[in-house]
Amino acid sequence: MKRCVFAFSVVAAFVWLALSCALAIPWIRDVSAALPWSYTVWVVMSIALLPGYLMGAMFLSNLLHARPARLPSVRPAPVSVLICARNEEASVYRTIRSVVGQRYDGPITILCVDNGSTDRTRAEIERAASELGRQDRTILLLTCRRPGKAHALNEALAHVGTEHFLTVDADTELEARALATLLARIQSDGAACVAGNLLAAEPKTWVGKMQIYDYLLSIAAVKRYQGSYGATLVAQGAFSAYETSAVRRIGG
Questions:
Q1: Distance (Å, rounded) from C-alpha 12 to C-alpha 113?
Q2: pLDDT band at 233 (very low <50, low <70, confident <90, very high)
């Protein structure tokens, strides 16, 4: 079935590409009167025709693939959440609060790594640990002095003692059931990692509003297209779940 859907979406996109090429010929002819013909063809192909083909194939594939079935409740196993922060004093407390407030019955260990901050990030993490920590929500402050998010993540990974862990950026806020939904997917699929869905929250500028569509296209649509064929290339660090043993096997 998946092969048929993929083949149909590719063929239909090629038909759309052929129609687009036919419509673009007068445009190319007019522009090439002022610019070199080869340059004109390259620009039109790069800006209009090739992106149109790729978007058409992805759109049709996503339209024809059924949405993933709603999963049963996740088994409330202990889980770790990794939050790496460098100069994130304005947002890290809210991020930790959103993790603590997850509608998830299992215990959550929140590993917050200060990656050489020069502001009040450490103080904000300590405040969160003091004010938000409880028996089933442990908040730990770790230190990684070597600059770089990968190094900070590996520092946190060394302290993970659960079957699965999640990464959450220090400026990401989770919806109430985000953690449970992502864990249910990775547990049911048996995948080594599962990418979450992201949106720009309450954008106030035009650039921020444009970011909504960037996320919908580059994360939501592309990830769904790749995931339909078991070929997701990237699990973004802002919100994803991982099988701990699999990550350690490949070296972190």
A1: 48
A2: confident
